[in-house]
Amino acid sequence: MHVLVLGAGVTGVTTAWYLTQAGFRVTVVDRQAEPACETSFANGGQISISHPEPWSNPATPGLILRWLGRDDAPLKFRPGRDPLQWRWGARFLFECLPARSRRNTAAIAALAVWSAHCLRVLRGQTGLEYDQLERGILHLFHDAREFAHAPARVRALRAFGIEAQVCSKAECLAIEPALAAQADTLAGALFAPADESGDAQRFTRALAHAASAAGAQMHWGLELDALSTRADGGVTGAEGRDANGERIRLEADACVICLGSYGPRLLAPLGIALPIYPVKGYSVTLPVIVPERAPSVSLTDESRRIVCSRLGERLRVAGTAELNGFDTRIRSERIAPIVAWARAHFPGALDLDHAEGWAGLRPATPGNIPLIGRSTRPNLWLNTGHGTLGWTLACGSAAALAQLMRGETPPVAFPFLQPA
Question: In whole angstroms, how far apart are CA 43 and each of 84, 89, 357?
């Protein structure tokens, strides 16, 4: 079977890899000139199995109200006239209900654990190098009231099979000495030793090369604008224009949508409404000039919703979520708090004058549950909507989709799409 994988971010490339390994003939299509040029370009760098709780949880509505009007708000809503934004926002609030949030958390946790296993197997098979570090993630608490909830979170994570432990201030400094500058304000942390970090862009491009060597074809620079269908509604391929404006049509036996925030636009003419809306995130990449003062353990500041990961001689610091349609402008007022956080936490460690800012659109469903499985159209499959956990869930999502397309049942307690 010949399969078109539409999109070459981390989700699309992992999908291509696992489908190729499963015996499918694969062609990857992307509008960019190479893989991982958009959402996967400069994310936070975490494989964060220990953070399965979605943004849509019972505490979030109150936090949003507290953050209203703040330029540095971790979650910022910029209301517009787009009815899709308002419908998505209403569904987001629904997913904040306790029962919905518990259900979503359990599903994400199951997929994250499976995905981490798949990543380790893949790395053993391919020997990929992408500035990876297997030193865990420290979830930092600077507020004693927030830290008081850490033991309950550890119990919940262990119930999902995720290793975690509560750490005192002294234990935090033993795990990551570079936190010494923040010792006075640090209340404690939750440590997840099985979590990882690395450069998602490097990973994606290296895996694309491996997939190509294994037989996958790569078709770059094609702006897709339509899917081809037959009389019964089945999808027969995709079409669009190349960099020269020429009309190109690619035929296949099946298509997989991995187009991130842009997938709904392609599927709308087929009557398929994906519950995905772009959630804009920011990051800053800073050269490390004093290595011993910069962290090598990946960090999550639970109070500020900021994460950082060491990528060789660079530090990636990322944070914030912003609902503002398809706006990808890098706003200085959103970047400045991230740079200030890095300066305060690791004084003298980083070259702040050469900070590289970035903004990207994360394809989020209201409950942060990705859409994985067969759509309502024959031969049209979905692997999209991963929100803030795209790289964390990428390998497991792709491996599961390959099994579903072979008629098998993935070993994961997750609500895969299986239309009647």
Answer: 25, 23, 11
Residue 408, CB-side half-sphere exposure with 13 Å CA sphere: 10
Q: How far is CA 145 from CA 152, 205, 289, 344, in A?
A: 13, 42, 35, 22
Q: How far is residue 127's CA from residue 123's CA, in Å, rounded to a whole number?
A: 5
DSSP secondary structure code for residue 259 in this structure: -
Under 8 Å between Cβ of 412 and 110: yes
**Region 26-38 average pLDDT:** 97
Rounded to an integer, what distance in angstroms lies between the CA atom of residue 420 and that of residue 394? Answer: 26
Q: Are 329 and 277 in contact (CB under 8 A)?
A: no
Q: Which residues pair with 334 in a beta bridge?
A: none
CB 259 within 8 A of CB 384: yes
Map tokens 């960019």 to a residue: 32
Residue 420's pLDDT band (boundaries 50, 70, 90)?
low
Question: Phi, psi at residue 8, to the nearest 5°?
Answer: -125, 35
Query: pLDDT (tens digit, 9 = 90+) per residue, 113-145?
Result: 999 999 999 999 999 999 999 999 999 999 999
Between β-strands 380-384 and 254-257, what pairing exists: parallel, antiparallel or unpaired? parallel
Name which of 48, 57, 50 is nearest 160 in CA terms. Answer: 50
d(CA 318, CA 299) in angstroms, rounded, equals 10
Do 28 and 13 touch, CB atoms closer than 8 A?
A: yes
SS3 264: helix
For the chain, domains (ranges, CATH) are 2-40+202-274+368-405 (3.50.50.60), 46-96+130-196+277-364 (3.30.9.10)
Residue 395's identity, in one-letter code, is C
Strand order in the sheet with 247-251: 223-229, 235-241, 247-251
- Measured distance CA(270)–CA(228) in Å, rounded: 10
Tell me: pLDDT of 149 over 80: yes
Q: What is the pLDDT of residues 245-269, one digit of tens each?
A: 999 999 999 999 999 999 999 999 9
**Beta-bridge partners for 229:** 235
Structure tokens at 299: 């960090």
pTM here is 0.96
In angstroms, the CA 129 to CA 305 distance is 28
